[in-house]
């Protein structure tokens, strides 16, 4: 439930996308789903202003609300550029196997027609989605993720069971990099499974205009998060003072939407250090999401060295025991094994 002065008006509709691959992917049909109905966003009332709870931005239509949708999105070079990623409120970038990262994209304020390519679930992505009570979308799953989802830890739609129906295979890419879903089909899947499509969403704390004007930190306009020695797995962020936002690049290519060409535009980048381990010979990982540790937060071209904590399933920036607020806008959270080895400031 929402605390304090926040009250929520929750109405309906969803969206998400997923795709699987490698040893966890089975069917390879090539049916394309329809992409017509625009899903509607969820908003929160704060005094007389209506804002979206996960971005802190003023809602375009404050009476339309939506349960968050968490989609597993492919980040292999053959899956770039992705579809719909630019509209996610929160994106977690996390290692899935070896040096390969995948995205867990949380959609709530903006709901794109197409999302993908969708990939398979891992247990720590499922745990991260639970911090938002999100409908979880994937195409395939690891053994431990399968256990969690089948045990009812999250509502889910899996492309293994809806390949060629709710999910379709795009002709312009090869499996396992070609599974997509539409918001229309997400709604269909949710309704057919009797899942809730409206929910109260706990808001993040956001900085006021006065607090933003007094924001402190070390200047940092460009930095790199390295997930491997190859440039393929490097995430670069550049701050644009004029636009007051960060752009993101993979392997020196800007992260943009496949259909529209619109770039990902971010207000917060939160880099957090977590203990990683290997679970099997396939390279699947285990990640400690609960112990807390070192973190760096980037906002308005400034860098702060902080700590992180897991509070009610969400990874939160902490300084001297207090929660650090986000700048209103979209947020990207990079989870890394070691900040010293993976972070490079290039300002």
UniProtKB/TrEMBL annotation:
Short name of any one Pfam family annotated for the protein: DUF3048_C
All residue ranges annotated as the DUF3048 domain in the record: 54-195, 225-333
InterPro entries: DUF3048_C (IPR035328), DUF3048_N (IPR021416), YerB-like_sf (IPR023158)
This protein's name: DUF3048 domain-containing protein
Originating organism: Metabacillus rhizolycopersici
Lineage: Bacteria, Bacillati, Bacillota, Bacilli, Bacillales
């Amino acid at each position: 439930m929402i605390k304090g002065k926040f009250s929520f008006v929750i109405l309906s509709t969803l969206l998400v996308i997923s795709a699987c691959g490698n040893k966890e992917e089975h069917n390879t049909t090539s049916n394309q789903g329809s992409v017509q109905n625009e899903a509607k966003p969820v908003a929160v009332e704060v005094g007389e202003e209506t804002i979206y709870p996960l971005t802190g931005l003023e809602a375009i239509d404050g009476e339309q609300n939506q349960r968050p949708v968490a989609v597993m999105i492919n980040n292999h070079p053959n899956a770039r550029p992705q579809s719909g990623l630019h509209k996610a409120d929160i994106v977690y970038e996390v290692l899935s196997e070896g040096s390969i990262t995948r995205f867990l994209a949380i959609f709530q304020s903006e709901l794109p027609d197409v999302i993908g390519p969708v990939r398979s679930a891992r247990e720590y992505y499922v745990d991260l989605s639970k911090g938002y009570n999100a409908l979880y979308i994937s195409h395939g799953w690891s053994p431990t993720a399968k256990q969690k989802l089948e045990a009812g830890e999250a509502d889910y739609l899996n492309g293994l069971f809806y390949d060629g129906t709710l999910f379709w295979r795009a002709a312009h890419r090869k499996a396992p990099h070609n599974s997509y879903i539409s918001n229309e089909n997400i709604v269909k899947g949710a309704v057919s499974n009797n899942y809730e499509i409206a929910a109260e969403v706990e808001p993040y704390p956001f900085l006021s205009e006065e607090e933003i004007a007094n924001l402190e930190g070390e200047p940092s306009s460009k930095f790199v998060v390295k997930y491997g020695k190859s440039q393929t797995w490097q995430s670069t962020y550049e701050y644009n003072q004029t636009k007051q936002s960060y752009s993101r690049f993979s392997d020196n290519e800007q992260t943009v939407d496949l259909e529209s060409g619109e770039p990902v535009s971010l207000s917060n980048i939160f880099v957090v250090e977590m203990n990683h381990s290997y679970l099997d010979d396939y390279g699947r990982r285990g990640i400690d999401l609960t112990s807390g540790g070192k973190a760096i937060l980037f906002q308005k071209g400034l860098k702060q060295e902080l700590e992180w904590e897991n509070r009610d399933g969400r990874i939160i920036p902490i300084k001297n025991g207090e929660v650090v607020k986000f700048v209103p806008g979209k947020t990207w959270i990079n989870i890394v094994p070691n900040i010293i080895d993976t972070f490079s400031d290039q300002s």
